[in-house]
């Protein structure tokens, strides 16, 4: 059995020859996940200070390049779009991959973090890699990885570096037509940042904000500089809408230095919101009927280089689209995805057209981004009420919802863990459920801006705010204590965020576990009369994953 590949641990390497999955399991004593878990995991332990900066303290990309050489330079085998940013990376990747698939291309997508299983991070054709396929992939290349780990000092190679190399190798072996790659941290020293210039169809930088500040240099300018590190000389750069002028200035200056053509996504791809469809959060939903199938409709107008690539030179076009991903911020992400799709078309993927763009935007989904669910038993009650209404209503007196039983609250799962994403969550929730009572469940990593996030969430005027903890990447080292979050909530109150509405004050509670916190939130909402309420679980994608893993929720 292999020893843990931690600093100072000398593990006997696997043979460089290909192993069968069964032989690999015998050699390692477990699955690919067990083997990967033996390498240092910075998501779990925390990223060292300045590790994402272009400095002596930064991660060593030379180590990553040597590993890729050992497994056959897979990053040269497919055109790529590389996506960095503080917010919106995952949504942009999901929409762009869906556009590629709608155009008939075999698309690879590499994302992080995952929601329920690490397998989600490596996807081909819209489907995550199966556990047996990951085991086989690791079995084929574990020998090379082990040899590289020995060469680079035993514990130098990280979990993320190895997983990135495996993703790139998977895309080569699966002969993808293109790959969409999400940066893990920052950009300039991220393990993903080894793509050859000739393969880079576009570097995309979504909204830059304050997250992972210690690892990325501290200031908004330093964070932007780290993310600008994915730009390559002469290659197109798609800039999403930037909330910070200082960040945009850094990005534009770096693009100019490298001679990169810049596509301002929010200028070349404009969306005019046209509402949501079909149904709302009240009406049938509030009285126990079927779940609202929320969509946001918008008219998309193209101009500039993006219109020229997708329609023709000098052409302008408008197109009605319907998105499953909700919120004004998702329209900004959609703009970045469409502009990047145009770059891919210019790179030779000429089946990408307006129809593929519209179909991809409408098909794209992403767990943990305003994900609407309900408990299984509530879904049954709601379905029964809807069926009774469809059969002509109330033969025996009383409302159909009363006779069928009143379902419990909706559940919204959102990984919001920055000020910007918390504000977007609050805005999107009130657009979808304008008057519904809310019970908030908050669990976060220790290194986030807790007070600022709480200040944004207080604008929801929840009837209850319940604080709890969640393991981060499977470990407790980075998890914020519930009391720490409660103190941040109270500090936000002192600053005036979210004053009581209608004379109702928020009950502030601490629960020992996430499942207990969600159940307590349901109890708090049951005490409210009138409209069906909403339990909001937020603060971390790890919290979203834990809820989906341990509670009987069904998607709406």
Automatic annotation (TrEMBL):
Domain Mur ligase central: 167-341
MF terms in GO: ATP binding; dihydrofolate synthase activity; metal ion binding; tetrahydrofolylpolyglutamate synthase activity
GO CC annotation: cytoplasm
Domain of life where this protein originates: Eukaryota
Gene3D superfamilies for this protein: Mur ligase, C-terminal domain, Mur-like, catalytic domain
Keywords, sorted A to Z: ATP-binding, Ligase, Magnesium, Metal-binding, Nucleotide-binding
Stretch list, region Disordered: 270-290
Domain Mur ligase C-terminal: 408-540
Matching NCBIfam families: folC
Protein name (database record): Dihydrofolate synthetase
Organism: Micractinium conductrix
């Amino acid at each position: 059995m292999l020893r843990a590949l931690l600093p100072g641990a000398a593990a006997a390497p696997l043979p460089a020859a290909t192993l069968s999955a069964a032989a690999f399991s015998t050699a390692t004593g477990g699955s690919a996940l067990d083997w990967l878990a033996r390498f240092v995991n910075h998501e779990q332990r925390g990223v060292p200070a300045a590790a994402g900066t272009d400095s002596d303290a930064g991660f060593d990309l030379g180590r990553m390049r040597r590993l890729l050489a050992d497994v056959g330079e897979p990053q040269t085998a497919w055109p790529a779009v590389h996506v960095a940013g503080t917010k919106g990376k995952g949504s942009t990747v999901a929409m762009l991959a869906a556009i590629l698939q709608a155009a008939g291309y075999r698309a690879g997508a590499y994302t992080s973090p995952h929601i329920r299983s690490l397998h989600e991070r490596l996807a081909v054709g819209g489907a995550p890699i199966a556990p047996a396929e990951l085991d086989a992939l690791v079995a084929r290349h574990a020998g090379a990885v082990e040899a590289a780990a020995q060469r680079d000092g035993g514990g130098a190679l990280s979990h993320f570096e190895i997983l990135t190399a495996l993703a790139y190798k998977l895309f080569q072996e699966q002969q993808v037509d293109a790959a969409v790659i999400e940066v893990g941290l920052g950009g300039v020293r991220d393990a993903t940042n080894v793509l050859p210039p000739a393969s880079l169809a576009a570097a995309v930088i979504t909204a830059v904000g304050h997250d992972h500040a210690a690892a990325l240099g501290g200031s908004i300018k330093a964070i932007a500089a780290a993310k600008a590190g994915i730009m390559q000389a002469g290659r197109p750069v798609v800039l999403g809408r930037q909330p910070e002028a200082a960040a945009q200035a850094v990005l534009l200056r770096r693009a100019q230095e490298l001679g990169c053509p810049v596509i301002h996504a929010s200028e070349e791809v404009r969306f005019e919101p046209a509402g949501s469809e079909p149904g709302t959060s009240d009406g049938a939903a509030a009285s126990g009927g079927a779940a609202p199938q929320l969509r946001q409709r918008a008219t998309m107008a193209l101009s500039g280089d993006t219109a020229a690539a997708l329609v023709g030179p000098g052409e302008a076009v408008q197109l009605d689209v319907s998105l499953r991903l909700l919120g004004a911020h998702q329209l900004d992400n959609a703009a970045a995805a469409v502009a990047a799709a145009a770059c891919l078309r210019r790179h030779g993927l000429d089946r990408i057209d307006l129809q593929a763009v519209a179909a991809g935007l409408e098909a794209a989904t992403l767990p943990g981004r305003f994900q609407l669910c309900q408990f299984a038993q509530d879904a049954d009650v709601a379905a029964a009420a809807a069926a009774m209404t469809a059969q002509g209503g109330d033969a025996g007196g009383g409302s159909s919802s009363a006779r069928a039983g009143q379902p419990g609250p909706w559940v919204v799962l959102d990984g919001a863990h920055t000020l910007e994403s918390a504000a977007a969550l609050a805005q999107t929730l009130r657009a979808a459920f304008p008057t519904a009572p809310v019970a908030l469940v908050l669990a976060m990593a220790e290194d986030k801006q807790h007070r600022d996030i709480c200040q944004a969430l207080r604008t929801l005027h929840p009837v209850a705010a319940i604080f709890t903890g969640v393991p981060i990447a499977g470990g407790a080292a980075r998890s914020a204590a519930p009391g720490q979050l409660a103190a941040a909530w109270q500090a936000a109150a002192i600053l005036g965020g979210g004053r009581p509405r209608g004379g109702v004050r928020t009950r502030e509670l601490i629960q020992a576990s996430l499942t207990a916190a969600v159940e307590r939130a349901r109890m708090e909402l049951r005490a409210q009369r009138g409209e069906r309420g909403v339990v909001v679980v937020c603060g971390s994608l790890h919290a979203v994953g834990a809820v989906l893993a341990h509670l009987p929720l069904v998607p709406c």
